[in-house]
Amino acid sequence: MKVLVTGGAGFVGSHIVDALVENGHETVVVDNLRSGHEGNVRSDVPVHNLDIRSPELARVLESERPEVVCHHAAQTTVKGSTSDPKYDADVNIMGMINLLQGCVSAGVRKVTFSSSGGTVYGNTQNLPVKETEPLDPVSPYGITKVAGEQYIEYFASNFDLKYTIMRYSNIYGPRDHASSEHVITVFIDRLLAGKTPVIHWDGEQSKDYLYVADCVAANLAVLTAGDNEVYNIGSGQPLSVNQIFRELTRQMGVDVQPEYGPKRAGDVRAFYLDISKAQQQLGWTPRVSFEEGLARTIQSYRDATATHA
Ligand SMILES: NC(=O)c1ccc[n+]([C@@H]2O[C@H](COP(=O)([O-])OP(=O)(O)OC[C@H]3O[C@@H](n4cnc5c(N)ncnc54)[C@H](O)[C@@H]3O)[C@@H](O)[C@H]2O)c1
């Protein structure tokens, strides 16, 4: 089938593009290259260098006529959303509405959406968190992801458009960039530069981390399944910052003690997702162990550092 990936030059989107092509799908990308890079996109995939808020998007959708739009373009950080909530809302809400209107006009069958399991539920203590947990975001980024979900549901209820919402945990893997502020990427970046990672709080706080290939597999599954459903997509397991630090330094063969810094506003003790709905309904399950995912990630960053040296 033909699939258009917004944000396809970014970290997660570019891995989805690779897998779509490898599975025989005709694939095109829309990305304004704000945090993504054209070099992330394989050369046989066309890239429309375009903002999802642009009126030009409707014309691209009309001419490309994809069957599915896989929506990953976004303002992606909590920090970016607190420092500039207007920009966050502009991209994540106005961009989303522009995209949905274009999809309806172009006869797109389905939109799949990368929401955020780590922020839409807020600070709930009901662990592991199920999809039925009330949405209670505490950051502008979480708020705009919830709004995005609700706009998709509105468009699907009123027009001939289907959707699947995926609430990701913390995705890690090759091509992530340290500016994402994802702890695994930041730690590898610092260790490769010979610097000491800083662990905020006591490091016993834990979250749910999923290797990017497993996230991609969920995206492939929802091309043809899970219509008008919402799924948590994560490992379903909590992993502490100290555990990440220990495994990273072990695999990288470095002997450093972490520096401990103050707890940051918003840090929570434990957070992980209940992924049983996706496992049962999509036949999807995470396949890459943390040790294996980390080994692949470290190797890719070492390769990239060697290439740029
Ligand atoms: N990586 C994670 O852990 C994670 C977790 C939850 C949700 N998500 C969501 O997954 C999606 C992809 O995240 P990522 O980690 O790959 O981030 P990323 O920054 O690598 O990718 C985002 C892409 O969108 C593009 N983009 C940004 N604004 C745009 C605009 N206005 N018009 C067109 N393109 C634009 C960027 O250039 C980039 O290529 C995002 O929607 C993000 O919110 C990611």
Task: Report what the structure shows.
The protein is built from eleven helices and 13 strands. It is of the alpha/beta class and 309 residues long. It has two domains: 191 residues, NAD(P)-binding Rossmann-like Domain (Rossmann fold, 3-Layer(aba) Sandwich); 90 residues, UDP-galactose 4-epimerase, domain 1 (Alpha-Beta Complex). The chain has a seven-stranded parallel sheet, sandwiched between helices. It has a two-stranded parallel ribbon with strand order 7-10. The longest helix is centred in the N-terminal third of the chain and has 22 residues. The radius of gyration is 19 Å and the shape is globular. The relative contact order is 0.13. The structure holds nicotinamide-adenine-dinucleotide (NAD). The site of nicotinamide-adenine-dinucleotide (NAD) has 28 residues, from helix 1, helix 4, strand 5 and strand 7.
Task: Offer a quick outline of the entry.
The protein is of the alpha/beta class and 309 residues long. The protein has helices spanning 11-22, 56-64, 78-83, 85-106, 117-120, 140-158, 183-192, 212-221, 241-252, 276-282, 290-308; strands spanning 2-6, 26-31, 47-49, 68-71, 110-116, 162-168, 170-172, 198-200, 206-207, 209-211, 229-233, 239-240, 259-261.
